Automatic annotation (TrEMBL):
Active-site feature positions: C74, H159, E161
GO molecular function, one term: ATP binding
Reaction(s) catalysed (UniProt annotation): XMP + L-glutamine + ATP + H2O = GMP + L-glutamate + AMP + diphosphate + 2 H(+)
Gene: guaA
Signal peptide: none
Pfam families on file: GATase, GMP_synt_C, NAD_synthase
CDD domains reported for this sequence: GATase1_GMP_Synthase, GMP_synthase_C
Keywords: ATP-binding, Glutamine amidotransferase, GMP biosynthesis, Ligase, Nucleotide-binding, Purine biosynthesis
The protein's name: GMP synthase [glutamine-hydrolyzing]
Length: 500
């Protein structure tokens, strides 16, 4: 396994993923974390700071003391240089973006051409090195692009993990297998078997409960833990009345009938809708739904459960660690049905070291239907935050049908998988129209679709006009109550993805 120390680069997750794609398990830690002891190599990530700043993140002592192979990238390289007798300075030329590098032969560049384009992003450079270290690649500006500190300690000024670096993957591969001599032994099949055993040994004949939302992460966690403990897992699906059309039946069909999971559907529609009566404020809506969810879940979990399974995944953890926030807090804020904080249960998070794409692959291996694994994200508060202002049954019915039409049409034109998230919003504003020869006064419905990676930033999707036209025609023809359809062309920032 490879330990990656995260110095705050936006590419750290990418780096961890590249290592795993090459068949070696990787774990991201912070510089002040204690590493587990069975690692075979260390990678130091890039980072936004200068190693010369007072509050720059240091190289922990154990790194050099471990005598393990080390690869420093960008900030990581400069940190190694600084700690091994070199000098790092702000140079006149800062290099950002694609930069040509000339390579001098070395095992880490095995099978790589003499001139390659690399991706750089640095203002500081290593300017001086003791003679015993070799510069093994340079840029045109004569800046050290790669340094060999010893037979197993290397630094790269450029980012091999980024696709813009030619042969970047090969360089990482050379480090892992020629320099660090690691074995290729990480695979998702192994992971599943090991995880199932681990969970079996931990839970034994005790009982566990999970809040199943029908989203990717909780679905995969449910099936994985079910494989380990069978009937002793109870999955609770809370229908808060703010779900999409047919959602409950869909989830029931898949988990109860297809996969045979002990699924408990809790119908709390009335409970939620009653509490949401006369509520207009988005934050208040979210708060009520969050609280109510936890109560429903607690009522159902009362007594007899020892474990709570959660579908936390790696990006949840890395992101929260990098921003210095505490994981539980982000989850309970961001995920309705997240951690009920005062519930007296031990937590099991079987997916917490996996990336989203790995979670999906595991889902496929476990036989979860693709349309569950590749569906768009859906917020915990559901349609409540897609109806501006007060929520009524009438509005919910309109929104459900509009959503269905939009999604169905995207799928029909093969656009569903091209966008990250698509949905409709009922604005609660009414405008004038004409139907036949009659005046009409009906709701404005907005359609929203965005392209994104993790939802932190997003661009509105450039969906072809003929698709938008079809969606608009179908919605105004088929749904009574909608008189006008508009397309939201705002990115995030400044807007958020959801309207509330
Ligand atoms: P925003 O609107 O913040 O949304 O740009 C970013 C992503 O998060 C989803 N979202 C939520 N998911 N509970 C969730 O589980 C929430 O309270 C929540 N609010 C927003 C949103 O659908 C988008 O994918």
């Amino acid at each position: 396994k490879v330990i990656i120390i995260d110095y705050g680069s936006q590419y750290t997750q990418l780096l961890a993923r590249r290592v795993r794609e090459l068949g070696v398990y990787s774990e991201v830690i912070q510089y002040d974390d204690t590493p587990s002891n069975n690692f075979g190599a260390i990678i130091l990530s890039g980072g936004p700071k200068s190693v010369n700043e007072q509050d720059s993140l240091p190289l922990p002592k154990w790194v050099l003391e471990s005598n393990k192979p080390i690869l420093g990238i960008c900030y990581g390289l400069q940190l190694l240089a600084k700690n091994l007798g070199g000098k790092v300075k702000r140079t006149e030329v800062a290099e950002y973006g694609k930069t040509e590098v000339e390579i001098i032969q070395d095992p880490i560049f095995y099978n790589i051409p003499k001139h390659i384009i690399t991706w750089m992003s640095h203002g500081d450079s290593v300017t001086k090195l003791p003679q015993k270290y070799n510069v093994i690649a340079k840029t045109k500006n004569n800046i050290y692009a790669a340094i060999k500190f010893s037979n197993n300690i290397y630094g790269l000024q450029f980012h091999p993990e980024v696709k813009h670096t030619d042969h970047g993957e090969k360089i990482i591969k050379n480090f892992l297998f020629y320099i660090a001599k690691l074995e290729k032994n990480w695979s998702l099949n192994n992971f599943i078997d090991e995880k199932i055993n681990e969970i079996k040994n931990e839970i034994k004949d005790k009982k566990a409960i999970i809040a199943l939302s029908g989203g990717v992460d909780s679905s995969v966690a449910t099936v994985l833990v079910h494989k380990a403990i069978g009937k002793n897992l109870k999955a609770v699906f809370v229908n808060h009345g703010l779900l999409r059309l047919n959602e409950e039946n869909e989830v029931k069909k898949i988990f109860k009938d297809l996969i045979g999971i002990n699924l408990n559907i809790v119908d709390s529609k009335k409970r939620f809708l009653n509490r949401l009566k006369n509520i207009y404020d988005p934050e208040q809506k979210r708060k009520i739904i969050g609280e109510e969810f936890i109560r429903v879940f607690e009522d159902d979990a009362k007594g007899h459960y020892d474990y709570l399974v959660q579908g936390t995944i790696y990006s949840d953890i890395i992101e929260s660690a990098a921003s210095g926030k505490n994981t539980a807090k982000i989850k309970s804020h961001h995920n309705v049905g997240g951690l009920p904080e005062n519930i007296n249960l031990k937590i099991i998070e079987p997916l917490k070291f996996l990336f989203k794409d790995e979670v999906r692959k595991i889902g496929e291996i476990l036989g979860i239907p693709k349309h569950i694994l590749y569906r768009h994200p859906f917020p915990g508060p559901g349609l409540a935050i897609r109806i501006i202002g007060e929520i009524t049954e009438e509005k919910l019915n309109i929104l459900r049908r509009a959503d269905q039409i939009f999604i169905e049409t995207l799928k029909e034109y093969n656009w569903y998988n091209k966008v990250w998230q698509a949905f409709t919003v009922l604005t609660s504003i009414k405008t004038v129209g004409v139907v036949g020869d009659e005046r009409n006064y009906d709701y404005v419905l907005a359609i929203r679709s965005v392209d994104s990676v993790e939802g932190m930033t997003a661009n509105w999707s450039k969906i072809p006009f003929d698709i938008l036209e079809k969606v608009s025609n179908r919605i105004t023809n088929e749904i009574k109550g909608v008189g006008r359809v508009v397309y939201d062309i705002t990115s995030k920032p400044p807007a958020t993805i959801e309207w509330e």
